[in-house]
Specification:
mainly beta; 2 domains; 1 helix; 35 strands; six-stranded mixed sheet; Tachylectin-2, Chain A; Jelly Rolls; six-stranded antiparallel sheet; 474 residues
Length: 474
């Protein structure tokens, strides 16, 4: 029987799609509950985003089964659209579209969650709008870039209710382009406002530009790869310390000095959290290519809890005596919603790698745009010492006997297949050269069940030695 191709992994949309900044929403329409994702659309390839938005959705019972509903909004002046948000009030869905590179926020409406969203009206909001429809029907908006703002909206969903505007509910980062206005501080607000109501509290999710070293995460300079949050009893003020939910720098290796090393090319981050069918998830994005113009939608299951004092915890939570006491970012994986691991006996694209580390230059996942079911995003710029890792694969109850790798080598290179860690047990090894593009070799001692798998490349010659396309076990 012919092998099938993994789909609905991480990134969860097809590898040819590039939707960053995704705001997840669970909407019920005509009796069906689905998760809808509204984000930017990286189609320009040489700059952020593009002139249209598309909508993807999945049933709440299966976050690996994503469907594209097509274009839902296009800027009337063909300008570049930055990150949007969509909310429902009554029987109407409202899209906040960020035209002209996010400098003009329009609100358009639809009677269906996938649009098209029409009749756009200019709002009084600013960059990266995030909207919260409260339990009592009141509507709040949050926005800002290196400076945060929030306010209650009037019934028109576009204008600010007098007396409700709050400036700098969070202190902002000290980026070179941030205003020196006396409102910077350790909240490090960068952009990407996303309000949510969790456990009856108001949770302000945002992109943080970290300005202090975090050796445990391999951060030694300014870094805006974090999705972080604050929480409050009030929608517009009083936000208290929360934590970090997601970080797109990949697996963290610990050096002998106890300091962390990132293993993925981090970049800006934007997204939010959503409870789906009883499980909480963080939706965020990763970088592909060598710039930030081909980002892709990712998700990870997270924990959500509240302590006896009302504090909200999101991410990877540590408990003591049954009480949440701290949280940190969840790990970045290849599996996403496939929490038991990717089926190792299907074809797995190298583009699902969540670990790209080592070698003279940093390997990268090449963006692909060809809309084929079998399209694979290759890993390029593989040097001597490069490691490519996937977390996690599922071998099932039978130990695999072979591993097949499709790759192109332009110089002789040895490939070692490791289990559980890049320095873990070697379960296969082979030599590749210019004469072949597929290698099938025996596997020894892989075991059963769920494991991380790493491919380590070693070569005697300088320069890039190979590209990896996809692999499978049998």
């Amino acid at each position: 029987m012919a092998k099938t191709f993994i789909r609905g992994a991480n990134p969860y949309m097809p590898l040819w799609e590039h939707v960053p900044d995704g705001e997840p929403r669970v909407f019920e329409y005509q009796g069906e509950k689905r998760v809808y994702v509204y984000g930017s659309h990286d189609t320009e390839r040489t700059q952020y985003c593009g002139p249209d938005y598309v909508v993807w959705s999945a049933p709440v019972t299966d976050l690996t089964d994503w469907k594209c509903h097509g274009i839902c909004y296009r800027a009337e002046d063909n300008s570049i659209l930055f990150a949007p948000d969509v909310v429902q009030k009554g029987d109407t869905f409202y899209m906040y579209a960020a035209e002209r590179n996010g400098s003009q926020i329009m609100v358009a409406s639809s009677k269906t969650p996938w649009g098209p969203f029409t009749n756009p009206v200019k709002t009084e909001l600013g960059f990266d709008p995030g909207i919260l429809v409260d339990d009592d029907g009141r509507v709040y908006a949050y926005w800002g870039f290196c400076g945060s703002y929030c306010a209650e909206l009037n019934e028109d969903m576009a204008t600010i209710k007098p007396g409700t505007l709050r400036e700098h509910p969070l202190t902002h980062c000290n980026a070179p382009w941030a205003k020196d206005d006396g409102h910077s501080g350790k909240d490090y607000f960068f952009e990407a406002s996303s309000p949510r109501k969790i456990f009856g509290k108001y949770v302000y999710i945002y992109s943080k530009r970290m300005e202090e070293e975090m050796p445990e995460l391999g951060v030694y300079e300014h870094c805006n790869g974090f999705l972080s949050y604050k929480w409050s009893d009030s929608p517009l003020e009083g936000f208290r310390d929360g934590g970090d939910i997601s970080f797109n720098g990949g697996e963290i290796l610990m050096g002998e000095d106890g300091k962390g090393i990132m293993t993925y090319r981090w970049g800006n981050n934007h997204g939010s959290v959503m409870e789906v069918n009883g499980q909480w998830y963080v939706f965020y994005h990763r970088q592909t290519g060598t710039d930030e113009y081909s980002r892709q939608a990712m998700l990870e299951p997270i924990d959500a809890a509240q302590d006896k004092d009302g504090k909200v915890f999101l991410g990877k939570i540590t408990y003591r005596n049954g009480e949440p006491v701290s949280s940190c970012p969840v790990e970045m994986t290849s599996q996403g919603a496939q929490v038991n691991g990717l089926d190792a006996r299907q074809w797995i694209s190298a583009g699902y790698a969540c670990h790209l580390y080592g070698g003279k230059e940093k390997a990268y996942i090449a963006p692909v745009y060809d809309r084929r079911e079998d399209v694979s995003a290759p890993v390029k710029e593989i040097f001597d010492g490069t490691g490519i890792g996937f977390r996690y694969l599922q071998f099932g109850s039978n130990t695999p006997r072979t591993v097949t790798v499709q790759m192109t080598a332009n110089k002789p290179v040895t490939v070692s297949v490791r289990l559980d860690a890049r320095d873990g047990k070697e379960i296969a090894v082979f030599r590749a050269d210019e004469t072949k593009t597929e290698y099938s070799v025996p596997v020894s001692g892989a075991g059963i069940g769920k494991h991380a798998v790493y491919f380590l490349f070693s070569a005697e010659e300088n320069g890039p030695v190979a590209e990896m396309n996809r692999f499978t076990f049998d």
